[in-house]
Specification:
The protein is an alpha+beta fold. Helix content is about 45%, strand content about 10%.
């Protein structure tokens, strides 16, 4: 037998050596598969580079949803109602609340231009700051000093059925996971490509089906690769390596004391994405498949319709008041927490799952991004350009279906980076073998760089390539990551997380107070707020059913 890449040296096999040969062959098969995947990506990139499709890479559509806690001047959670001057949290198109009454959420429209998207987010934030009086916005993902579950107000939306449903859902979350979870903030990034892109890409892939089916299939391919590789985003942009000890008071945890009053992990990146968030033993065996729209909706539908013993014990009502929407494993689809979701705009009378099932995927929502306390908006253009390049890489790279074992390995990789992402000895699982974090990340970065170069050609600049280069530098020097910068500041100054985050919140408020909105912009937001209250009243007046009938 010849000695080559796919052949061991020995020609004589004992039973043991035969076993070793089989293992060797298996490893080589994996190696060959990786070469094939790389070749497929290269072929797609070459085809795009020589076709009109290249010019459409610059037409990415995006929107941002940013969460921020309202806090009092002393750094404690605000217990005041949602400010009236901000508008109705139920019906305002740009300013709402998420889980807690104190957790504001700012929503931009859909933008083809990154600067326009950030400018709208900046406008929203400036208006909010102008209406807060003596309150501040917390500028970090992990919350301020907390005083226990019962001191965290649940979001309120009015007296309509849809408003009651939103509040009862949040009450249910509190019973299931604790209200402390309702104070964690993040950034959700919505991403899509226009039909003009999908039409040409469908031709390039020689697909003969409907355009919507093609889009849905390939958005799910993107999602599967995202789940394989999202740990890279957590390493690069994770900004929650520590937390105030009040968040974990009375709870079991494995965090270390970093400085007085502060818990974390020395090599941690994003505690928000670990087991401090919306995790429960009830969901441990919930296996949601992303291999197709049909499998995705079927697995979620099962969780929405199967009652769970733990939630049956809580009961649907206490003293005649609803405590949760139902006793199912999931009250609604959004209770299933994932780092990425397939989405489409829903209309009155539709549920998210129904809309997806009937009409297909319209866009995807990235949910693993921390709020960067060093950035006024929590995110910037450079980060967005990298994320766009990363998501297009996930779309164009081949994406085989994931079985349960691979899905678990992907989850283990994510957990490893959440807890030890900057550990120079960190090993991740690549397919079924171990490899160093840096080697794996460098291989991904090489593919992302090629996508970024094509996007730069579409935009006639080098901004995407520069964004990727800035992130590649973090692979060589982990001290450049936000998580490392935060921990270094805490350590150098022997500063508690609360004091650090409070300092950032005050600085951001001071910066925004120096330059408010123009008179015209202020008037526009005030008009939106007034209209939103009118819209809420119209919704309340239109109700014809009792809440029980509405839920049914």
């Amino acid at each position: 037998m010849k000695n080559n890449l796919f052949s061991p040296i020995e020609e004589d096999y004992t039973e043991n050596s035969l076993f070793m040969l089989l293992v060797y062959r298996y490893q080589q098969a994996i190696f060959a598969r990786e070469i094939i995947l790389s070749t497929l990506l290269q072929n797609r990139l070459k085809a795009i580079a020589s076709s009109p499709l290249k010019s459409l890479l610059g037409d990415v559509q995006r929107g941002i949803e940013k969460e921020s806690l309202r806090i009092r001047a002393n750094g404690l959670l605000a217990k005041t109602p949602h400010p009236v001057t901000l508008g109705s949290a139920l019906s305002h198109p740009k300013i709402t609340t998420d889980y807690s009454e104190a957790l504001l959420e700012f929503i931009t429209g859909v933008h083809g231009n990154i600067d326009d998207c950030l400018a709208e987010l900046d406008q929203i934030q400036r208006f909010v700051y102008s209406q807060l009086n003596d309150e501040l916005l917390w500028t970090s993902s992990m919350p301020c000093v907390l005083e226990g579950d019962q001191n965290i107000p649940v979001a309120q939306y009015g007296s309509s059925n849809v408003a009651k449903m939103k509040t009862v859902y949040r009450l249910g979350l509190g019973h299931r996971y604790g209200r402390l979870m309702q104070t964690i903030a993040g950034i959700h990034y919505n991403f899509s490509l226009p039909d003009s892109f999908w039409q040409l890409y469908q031709q390039q892939e020689a697909d003969q089906g409907s355009l919507q089916d093609f889009k849905t299939t390939h958005y799910f391919k993107l999602i599967r690769n995202f789940r394989r590789y999202s740990w890279l985003l957590v390493y690069l942009f994770g900004a929650s390596p520590s937390v105030c000890q009040t968040f974990l008071k009375g709870r079991d945890h494995h965090l270390q004391t970093l400085v007085e009053g502060t818990l974390g992990m020395p090599y941690g990146t994003s505690l928000r994405m670990g087991d401090l968030g919306y995790q429960s033993s009830a969901q441990e065996h919930l296996n949601v498949s992303y291999n197709s729209l049909e499998q995705y909706t079927a697995s979620l539908l099962s969780a929405l319709t199967c009652s769970h013993p733990d939630y049956e014990k809580t009961g649907l009502k206490q003293n005649g008041e609803y405590q949760q929407l139902n006793t199912s494993l999931l009250q609604i689809e959004n209770e299933f927490y994932s780092s990425i979701r397939p989405k489409r705009v829903i209309h009155s009378g539709e549920t998210p799952l129904q809309a997806l099932s009937e009409k297909g995927v319209e866009y995807i929502e990235v949910r693993c991004l921390d709020v960067n306390p060093y950035l006024p908006l929590g995110i910037n253009a450079e980060q967005i350009r990298f994320i766009d390049s990363f998501l297009l890489f996930c779309l164009l790279q081949d994406s085989p279906e994931m079985d349960l074992d691979e899905d678990q390995r992907a989850a283990q990789n994510l957990t490893a980076v959440v807890e030890r992402g900057r550990d120079p000895e960190l090993q991740l699982t690549r397919n079924t073998s171990q490899c160093s974090f840096k080697d794996y990340a460098a291989e991904l970065m090489a593919g992302i760089e090629q996508v970024a170069e094509l996007m730069d050609q579409a935009d006639d600049d080098k901004l995407h390539s520069e964004a990727v280069a800035a992130q590649r530098a973090k692979l060589h020097n982990s001290e450049l990551t936000p998580s490392a910068q935060i921990l270094k500041q805490l350590s150098d100054n022997q500063q508690a997380y609360f004091k650090f985050a409070m300092q950032q919140a005050r600085q951001c408020a001071a910066d925004y107070s120096e330059q408010g909105l123009s008179t015209a912009e202020q008037a526009e937001f005030s008009a939106l707020a007034k209209q939103s209250w009118q819209d809420q009243k119209a919704i309340e007046a239109a109700d014809q059913l009792s809440f029980e009938q509405y839920l049914a």
